[in-house]
Automatic annotation (TrEMBL):
Name recorded for this polypeptide: MFS transporter
Main location per the UniProt record: membrane
Keyword Membrane: yes
Membrane topology of this protein: Multi-pass membrane protein
Residue spans crossing the bilayer: 21-47, 59-80, 92-110, 116-140, 161-180, 192-211, 246-263, 283-300, 312-331, 337-361, 373-394, 406-424
Major facilitator superfamily (MFS) profile domain mapped to chain residues: 20-428
Organism: Actinomadura keratinilytica
Length: 447
């Protein structure tokens, strides 16, 4: 739908907030679906790319390639954050989803070791490099777009859909895994069935590309595009003029990302390996808890629009610092589905204070000309250092016979972030561009 100016000249299409919300956030669904299925289906395709004989070595090589994706995330954050600040948020969103589609398709069609030797593993490595670049850029691209495309009074609500879509991606991957395991034999899954999830991922990314191609650029970017010198937009020099905000993003992410990976990806393994639950029961607990967690995000985001971001962040910091040790200790001795679900939900409710609003807080800290890069790079660094290593740290403590040390590690990371939450400024009424100055002033007057 277009509008017409008084002189008869058609203006650009009218902005549709819900179209922006879907287009800006749905890429996270595909991204985290791809991330999940690589990890969970590695046990089925590891033997396809490496010599037969040692299944453990095959899996270790495959997961080594998986780890490369984490190292590429800061690079993706830098490159795609720079693109978002210099060429626009829509350009960055389109680039990330293109990388998603290509990486999933490469894995789906990668030739096996029996057919071409190690060339298949090289294709797998290239796919993971592209996927790491994409994940590194997608978070900031969608966080920046969702924040700028929403109205000042609903930024927390809109940006919360980033974690709605991320969790939905994990649930879709988990659901497809359960479906394929129930409908295919183990031999079929090892032979070719493992390719199905990656074909689905490639098709899903193509659909997202179509949706994003029709998105409008954010008004904040358009208004501010000419305000900063072109040499400053999206550069490290321009970003490091905001060193304090850069450090803030790393510090406020530290506790949140460790807690998030602990209560999502690691907890299923913890319930199985430490608590002694069956894999089926542990998977079902995680599926149910993550479903509830997904629906909590918009509610918490909307609450932050009313009371501010800091109260939610502080509640997460206090809850994670004080609650992690008793929750994880109780889970260690859990004996049934319902107690395990209640405890996991307790942890995820605490984590919601971070996940629901962390994207908007980061975006509100930076000016428009370095916002995408300012969100992308420090977040990717913190995520690689703390989130990506959470499972390894947990297993290191477990192997050393002091598994409870990991609980204290999570609590300590939350304590560091809590100091930041208590001392940082409130960002709810932050003005993102000159276009928001008048509305923000009115909101501040009413608040």
């Amino acid at each position: 739908m277009t509008t017409t100016l008084s002189g008869g000249t058609p203006s650009r299409p009218a902005r549709r907030p819900w179209q922006a919300l879907v287009g800006g956030s749905i890429g996270n669904l595909v991204e985290w679906y791809d991330w999940f299925v690589y990890s969970s289906f590695a046990v089925y395709f590891a033997a396809s790319f490496f010599p037969k004989g040692n299944s453990t070595a095959q899996l270790l090589n495959t997961m080594g390639i998986f780890a490369v994706g984490f190292f590429m995330r800061p690079v993706g954050g830098w490159l795609l954050g720079r693109l978002g600040d210099r060429r626009g948020r829509k350009a960055a969103l389109t680039a990330t989803v293109t990388l998603m589609s290509v990486s999933a398709l490469l894995i789906a069609i990668a030739p096996t070791y029996d057919a071409v030797g190690y060339f298949g593993a090289v294709v797998l490595l290239v796919a993971r490099l592209l996927q790491g670049l994409s994940v590194g850029g997608e978070y900031a691209a969608s966080a920046t777009y969702l924040t700028e495309a929403s109205t000042p009074g609903r930024r927390g609500f809109f940006s919360s859909f980033q974690y709605v879509s991320m969790t939905a991606g994990q649930l879709c991957g988990l659901g497809l895994q359960i479906l394929l395991q129930r409908t295919m034999s183990d031999d079929t899954l090892h032979s070719w069935g493992w390719r199905i999830p990656f074909i689905v991922g490639a098709v899903g990314a193509a659909v997202v590309f179509y949706l994003r191609r029709n998105l409008l650029e954010t008004e904040a970017y358009e208004v501010e595009e000419g305000a900063a010198a072109p040499a400053e937009r999206g550069t490290l020099a321009g970003l490091f003029r905001h060193r304090r905000e850069f450090a803030l993003v790393i510090a406020l992410t530290m506790g949140g990302t460790v807690a998030y990976y602990t209560y999502t990806t690691y907890l299923t393994k913890y319930l199985s390996n430490t608590a002694g639950m069956s894999k089926d029961d542990a998977t079902l607990v995680s599926f149910c808890a993550l479903t509830v967690f997904m629906f909590l995000q918009p509610a918490a985001g909307a609450l932050s629009d009313r009371i501010g971001r800091r109260p939610l962040l502080i509640s997460f910091g206090v809850g994670s610092m004080l609650g992690t040790v008793p929750i994880m200790t109780a889970l260690r001795d859990v004996s049934g589905f319902w107690p395990a679900l209640a405890l996991m939900l307790g942890g995820l409710v605490i984590v919601t204070g971070y996940t629901s609003i962390n994207a908007v807080v980061k975006a509100e800290l930076f000016p428009t000309h370095v916002r995408a890069l300012g969100v992308a790079l420090p977040y990717a660094l913190a995520n690689a250092m703390f989130g990506g290593t959470a499972e390894y740290v947990a297993l290191w403590f477990k192997q050393g016979g002091i598994e409870s040390g990991f609980y204290w590690y999570v609590s300590g990371c939350a304590a560091v972030s809590l100091v930041v939450y208590v001392t940082m400024r409130e960002t709810r009424h932050a003005v993102l561009s000159r276009a928001e100055q008048a509305p923000a002033a009115e909101l501040a007057g009413r608040g």
